[in-house]
Amino acid sequence: MYKVLNISEEGRGGGAIGRIRIIANELKGRINTIIVVPKGSEKYVQSLKQLGLNYREISLYPMTTDFKGAILYFIFFIPEVISLACLISKEKPDLVHCNGSWQVKGVIASKLVGVSSLWHMNDTYQWRFVEMLFKLLSWLPTGYIYASERTRNYYEKLSKKISNSPFSSVIVAPVDRETIQPIIRSRQSPIKLLLIGYINVHKGIELLLNASAEFKDQEIEIDIVGPILSTRETYVNSLFLLQRELDVSNVSFLGYQKIDTELLSKYHYYICSSIREASPMAVWESLASGLPIISTDVGDVKEVIEKNSCGVISEKLNGESLAKAIRTLIGQTDEEYKEMSKNAVIASDTFDKEQVAKAYLSFYKKVIGE
Question: Can you give 145-181 as a three-state secondary structure string?
Answer without folding.
Answer: EECCHHHHHHHHHHCHHHCCCCCEEECCCCECCCCCC
